[in-house]
Design brief:
It is built from 9 helices and 16 strands. By secondary structure, the protein is of the alpha/beta class. α1 crosses α9.
């Protein structure tokens, strides 16, 4: 059987290569050039007519999002039989819903943009890894079919490796409590989260920790770390409650600016572990910031979720 042809956007070439090594994929080639005025040139160098194609790319910026749109549209134009668009990180989570009149819901408009990619004759699927907003899948329209997959197994294995003798699995607030409680139950450890009390329309404070963490190793899970402010606040609460050590695991290490240095300088964390869903985390990896790959999981997801479908 002919192998699937796998392409990647520029910033996700590292993950595309890892996925290809983890499954039965042939790496596709794209010629690229940037003109003096910033306009980009792309040319698909492989024959894609009647091929089953996978495209790996995250929406880490508007430029990256448009690169996905342009490349996917070209793959359809040149005859791809089917496309599986693998989005390890779908950004725009800050604006995933309207809070005030006039707010632009960017997560929805970007989903609509990707939904407007022409549909290959045998189907178009988008695979999303741990989207920050649970309602994101409802923003996609038309013939594109969203599929959500989880880095749960990678988080579980990382946590067990960090603290093999036992730990409390914690989260930064009640928003991820169900997810963390479910994983803690599977592992056989206690779960904890912090309670927030609203002071006014803009400010909150932490009022309590839900579980006994004194003299315990605590591992905080958060699906995404951006500036780290929420993580730092939660870590201080667990430290003040007597935690023996604190580490953190996240699916998406966005980590803009000096976020990693701020987390390191706080002295609160033994280690931070991220998946390789975001290129920024991969760029910053060191002894403090450890990276675990979701490539085997994504390769398996492509096989399990799409091979069973006749279109793929």
């Amino acid at each position: 059987m002919e192998r699937r042809l796998l392409f990647s956007t520029v910033r996700y070439e590292y993950l595309g290569e890892r996925i290809a090594c983890s499954g039965d994929f042939e790496l596709g080639k794209v010629e690229r050039e940037t003109f003096p005025d910033g306009e980009r040139y792309q040319r698909v160098l492989d024959e894609v007519d009647a091929r089953k194609v996978v495209l790996v790319g995250g929406t880490v910026s508007d430029i990256d999002t448009l690169e996905i749109f342009d490349l996917a549209s070209a793959l359809v134009k040149y005859g791809a039989q089917s496309i599986a668009l693998v989005v390890p990180y779908f950004g725009y989570s800050t604006m995933d819903r309207a809070v005030r009149h006039g707010d632009v819901v960017t997560a929805k408009t970007r989903a609509r943009l990707l939904s407007s990619i022409p549909v290959p004759r045998h189907g178009f699927r988008i695979i999303l890894l741990d989207p920050h907003s649970e309602g994101l899948t409802y923003y996609f329209e038309g013939a594109i079919t969203p599929v959500c997959v989880s880095a749960r197994d990678a988080v579980r294995l990382a946590a067990l490796r960090l603290c093999p003798a036992g730990f409390v699995l914690a989260c930064t607030d009640a928003g991820r409590a169900k997810w963390v409680q479910s994983l803690a139950d599977d592992i056989g450890v206690d779960a904890s989260f912090v309670f927030k009390r609203r002071l006014n329309g803009r400010r909150t404070e932490l009022s309590a920790v839900s579980a006994h963490v004194e003299d315990q190793d605590v591992i905080i899970y958060d699906d995404m770390i951006r500036t780290g402010s929420t993580l730092l606040t939660a870590a201080r609460a667990y430290r003040d409650a007597g935690a023996k050590s604190i580490s953190a695991i996240t699916t998406h290490g966005v980590l803009p600016g000096d976020t990693v240095e701020t987390l390191k300088a706080s002295g609160l964390f033994q280690k931070i572990i991220c998946t390789d869903s975001h290129p920024r985390a991969v760029e910053l990896a060191d002894d403090f910031l450890e990276i675990v790959s979701v490539a085997p999981m994504l390769a398996g997801a492509i096989e399990r979720r799409l091979t069973a479908m006749r279109a793929f």
